[in-house]
Write a structure and sequence with these properties.
Layout (H helix, E strand, L loop, with lengths): L2 H8 L25 E6 L10 H18 L9 E3 L5 E3 L14 E6 L8 H14 L6 E3 L11 H17 L15 H10 L9 H13 L10 H7 L22 H16 L5 H13 L1
Parallel strand pairs: 1-4, 1-5, 2-4
Antiparallel strand pairs: 2-3
Helix pairs in contact: 1-3, 3-4
């Protein structure tokens, strides 16, 4: 599958299915140009319900605001990800949201500073894995030069979680990555060997992998197997954890136990002290009998 096919494999509802007045589909970029995931929110309430009609009417309202009120050529966002996890297509993926975002897929979370659901988060993660070559390429509107408060405090929490999950996904995929492959694992390799991160493993990537392998003392076969992968993505060693052992507190003594203990001590104190003179007297008494 091509990268563009992978993208449309994620989409649940195409724009042609809900919008008869689609904007221009003339491409301004290729799928290989996209390496950034950029997240936005509405800054207003989301759809009143998650029915198909509710989602459609809400997106068309956003489109009208962008095209009529703002005077833009089309709806701004490439994708909308709803609370039930459904992914709806917005602006065509090969049309950047604006010139400065030629490398980004713009992803919209409906609502104002909404807390993402787990289903929604998993869909966002799929998009981030498709788009971003490395965790640092996952961002929201707050993290680019023309920054705003978008996508809110909760949106920033989502961004950090996505970054952490992308970082953990650098584990070996379980198969070799080689010429002809495509996808997120190829992008991770390309980011290491220093070629264009387009997700397509071709001759340039293969040559760069061979050069990297040779420079790192590996067999330069241009194939990223488990040995090369482990060298490219070493597993960080966790810092030793200091364990402080806190002694268990002494068991509490009840009033009854304390009284019994005092009685035993008093009985011991009442016994006569066994001195050497007393022992001799006892022995003489026994011998006399």
């Amino acid at each position: 599958m091509t990268r563009l096919q992978d993208f449309y494999g994620m989409v649940d509802v195409y724009r042609s299915e809900y919008d008869s007045s689609i904007g221009s589909t003339e491409a301004t970029r290729t799928s290989a140009d996209i390496e950034v995931y950029e997240q936005h929110h509405t800054g207003a309430v989301g759809p009143v319900d998650l029915s198909e009609a509710g989602k459609r009417n809400w997106i068309l309202g956003i489109e009208a605001y962008h095209r009529v009120t703002k005077g833009w050529s089309d709806i701004f966002y490439n994708l909308f990800v709803f609370a039930d996890g459904e992914i709806w297509e917005g602006r065509h993926i090969l049309r950047s949201s604006q010139r400065s975002l030629n490398d980004a897929v713009t992803v919209h979370i409906p609502g104002n500073n909404s807390v993402t659901t787990e289903a929604q988060h998993q869909s966002l993660l799929r998009v981030a894995r498709w788009a971003a070559s490395v965790p640092e390429k996952v961002r929201d509107h707050q993290q680019r030069p023309a920054a705003t408060a978008c996508s809110g405090v909760n949106g920033r929490i989502t961004i950090e979680r996505l970054r952490n999950e992308l970082l953990m996904s650098v584990v070996y995929p379980g198969f070799v990555v080689r010429d002809g492959d495509s996808g997120v694992f190829v992008k991770q390799v390309q980011a290491v060997v220093g070629v264009s991160v387009d997700g397509a493993f071709g001759p340039l990537t293969e040559a760069a992998v061979k050069a990297w392998q040779s420079a790192n003392g590996l067999s330069a076969d241009g194939v990223v197997g488990p040995t090369t992968w482990a060298k490219m993505f070493p597993v960080p060693v966790a810092a030793p954890v200091s364990v402080v052992v806190v002694p268990a507190p002494a068991p509490a003594v009840t009033a009854t136990q304390l009284k019994e203990l005092e009685s035993r001590v008093a009985a011991l104190e009442a016994r006569p002290v066994l001195t050497l003179a007393r022992v001799r007297a006892m022995l003489r008494k026994r011998l006399a009998t």
